[in-house]
Amino acid sequence: MAIVLTQDEPELLAGQDSSSRGSPNLRQFIRLLDDAGLLVRVPEPVHWKFEIGRRTRETRKPLLFENIIGYPGQRVFTNGLCNTACVAIALGIDRDDSRPAILREARRRLESPFSPRLAEASALCGNLTKADHPDLTRLPIPHWSELDAARYLGTWHINVSKDPETGERNIGVYRMQLLDRHHATVSAFPGSHLAMHVRKAERLNRLLPLAVAIGVPEAVMTAAAAGCPPGKDEFELAAALLQRPLDLTRCPGVALEVPVESEIVAEGFIQPGVRVQDGPFLDYRGVQNTNSEAFLFEATQLWIRDMPIFRGASVGTPGGEDHQLFSLLAELGLLDFHGSRLRHGVQNALLRRGLFGIFQRVSKAGAMLGPLARIKASPSP
Length: 381
Ligand SMILES: Cc1cc2nc3c(=O)[nH]c(=O)nc-3n(C[C@H](O)[C@H](O)[C@H](O)COP(=O)(O)O)c2cc1C
What we know:
Elements: H1 26-35, E1 40-42, H2 51-59, E2 63-65, E3 75-78, H3 84-90, H4 99-110, E4 116-118, H5 123-127, E5 128-130, E6 152-154, E7 157-162, E8 169-172, E9 176-177, E10 183-186, H6 193-203, E11 208-214, H7 218-225, H8 234-242, E12 246-250, E13 257-259, E14 264-270, E15 276-282, E16 288-305, E17 309-311, H9 321-331, H10 341-352, H11 356-368
Parallel strand pairs: 1-2, 3-17, 4-12
Antiparallel strand pairs: 2-3, 5-16, 6-9, 7-8, 7-11, 10-16, 11-14, 12-13, 14-16, 15-16
Helix pairs in contact: 7-8, 9-10, 10-11
Flavin mononucleotide binds at residues 156, 170, 172-175, 187-189, 192-194, 225-228, 313, 315, 322, 325, 336, 338, 379, 381.
């Protein structure tokens, strides 16, 4: 059964239509988790370096860090999709529904499309404040684990780009390591649509515009992580999962659209012909992964909502929220690791059964075998 959102908290819903139905945006989601007694607020000071990541891995409950040392007024939210009840709430479905009922509702939505729609050009600027300089270190970006090389800007976010030849849009989730104030890596699998866009931009010797939106509705994140054939707009998939129109707005500086319901938007470019090292990073298999062929993102503008909520994830723990999301996508037939058919079939079967420990071990073994040994020099989710 779908939940109808009625009691909207003004502070939490700045910029939202109070009659919105369907899946919640991030602030509504956090509010619903709180109402259901599932949210753990962390009011005491925490450090972005290791502490947020460690507590995220240890607690296994949705966590809202409200007091980040050096970042007054900013919050970090993690573990949002840590179990089936939370997945249901994120999609605006009754959390007491059984897992099969939740999946039935999600499948029904995929067959009941809604459209993304373009909001006024000012929608983004009206809700978000432009930072004076595109200084990414203004954000409370966690250094999630001692096994990671650095802080990771992108662990639970969306990357928006367009095919430089056809103009077709892609949204995906590709991890991003903070390099300095204005730069981050983008670690995309060579078979991903973003990598395809980069290769085309490089043939044309052009910068590839990229927008990074953090703190989007979980349904939008889910659609970004889904395997979608080129030409199929993942924002349409997101709107179907939301079961309400998805308002998009044009980025002020680049010809890309992002959800109005974003907490943070960094826009900029991927530099053609440049590759940088990403990682090591503790990945979904629980192993340190390095990608020496990552793309280089240069931020040119940064937009931040008032009292922003930075959304991120500490991946690599069996059954963590990344695995929960993969499991949901596997059940919906939307998971795509861009690997061999055999690998795909085995991973899907394990994820559908919730066998996360075995899924990790098989994924790790698969990466070390045969042609997939390349994975060491390639990114992985
Ligand atoms: C939490 C999370 C992190 C991910 N990280 C990466 C990543 O770093 N690189 C990558 O290529 N795919 C990553 N993925 C998987 C892609 O988002 C997924 O394959 C998606 O379908 C890619 O979109 P595309 O097929 O349009 O390229 C991640 C998925 C999730 C849920």
